[in-house]
Amino acid sequence: MFAFSVMSYFDRTIMTIAGPEIMKEFNISATSMGSVYSAFILSYAILMTPAGWAADRLGPRLTLFLMGMTSAVLTALTVAGGARGITRWIGVVPALFAIRFVLGAATAPLYPACARMCAYRIPVIHHARVQAFIIAGSSLGGAVSPILFSWMMAQFRWRKSFYLAAIAAAALALVWMTVEDRAGEAVLKRSGRVTPRAWKAWLQLLAKRNLALLTLAYFTMGYFEYIFFYWIYYYFGEVRKVGYAASAKYTTAVFLTMLVMMPLGGWISDRLTRAYGARFGRRIVPIVGLSSGAVLLFLATVTPGITLTAALLSLAIGCTSVCEGPFWSMAIDIGRDDVGSASGILNTGGNVGGFFAPILTPLIASHAGWSWGLYSGCLMVIAGAVACYLVNPEGENVRDAVAAAPRPA
């Protein structure tokens, strides 16, 4: 599941690495390219909740295999978006938009399926750290893609590099289908724990106050993080004028910070939950993390030195990334038997926020400058910290599981 997370974010961020070259080759503006970037997030967000229900229905083994194979095919098809015949017929921007839109839909079941697996294979008291570890794969994928894909483009150009990425994704899906424990999923199906409940019960999740507040908070964090996923490489290279080789290194440092701090946040949340209960342990990490991220991002924009700016940006995204494990563990606790659906609703919120970030950031920057484009992320996560404060994730099932766990030394 960690490897799927790595591969998924590698495939979705390589478009931003190839973006400057594609923009120059086809004379595409930054605003138009932002719409291409957002195409993935649009379908990913729209279909996230149905994808969570599908993960409940199909089980995580088959869901992740189908996701991996379909993503591989669509990554390869990205090359068709720059084919001369297609660009003359419908234009390169609509073609790339359509391909990325379908790729987002194919990728949507990833994290709901992982949450489904985690809910029934991992004890409650370890949910935050395990979910954080899985989602940390996104940071590794984002960290590797600037350097690795830049090197691949230098060796093979952008079209062949997309083909190689597609082959890697297909190989991972085949490995998963081979090694994942079929017997374990069969036991879950026989016990009725993989089969989702009726649509009426699923729809009731949408009316849960705690899930709504949690989704709102995740929306703000999604907006914040997707500024980094889609525009930080461009910010270093074009706004701070450090060159693309240095941009790749600084962007890699940003995502490596996420890779380290994300599991740390899950571990801290689990320890605090075991010691003080879920109401405190699950909420305090997002409240502190989101607030700190806002302050650090603001400081980065007003700092002249590029090295210190890169350090502050890395810490800003690192502080928000510590919230991932607690967010997903709270979704699992709130969803109970409908884990996939609850996780799908949560991730829908995060990616709706992510959909707006690539579009609004350059739009705000075009009118008020790039600093204000980044300030919008600061304001978002401050609102998210307030929403986290109002969430109560501690149901009876969570209290019982926490009470049964041994206290930390």
Under CATH, the topology is which? Growth Hormone, Chain: A
What's the average pLDDT? Answer: 82
Order of SSEs: HHHHHHHHHHHHHHHHHH
What's the helix count?
Answer: 18
Instruction: Give the number of DSSP strands.
Output: 0
Estimate what percentage of residues fall within beta strands: under 5%
Helix content: over 70%
Count the domains: 1
Note poorly predicted spans. Answer: 190-196, 396-404
The class by helix and strand makeup works out as mainly alpha
Instruction: Assign the CATH superfamily.
Output: MFS general substrate transporter like domains
Named CATH architecture: Up-down Bundle
Defining traits:
single chain; 409 residues; mainly alpha; Growth Hormone, Chain: A; 18 helices; 0% strand; globular
Overview of the structural elements:
The chain has 409 residues and is mainly α. It has a single domain, classed as Growth Hormone, Chain: A. It has 18 helices and no strands. The protein has helices at residues 2-26, 30-46, 48-58, 60-77, 84-89, 92-107, 110-121, 127-179, 182-190, 199-204, 209-239, 244-276, 278-301, 306-321, 324-335, 339-368, 370-389, 396-404. Helix 3 (48-58) crosses helix 4 (60-77), helix 4 (60-77) packs antiparallel against helix 6 (92-107) and helix 8 (127-179) crosses helix 12 (244-276). The two termini are 30 Å apart. The model is unreliable at 190-196 and 396-404 (pLDDT under 50).
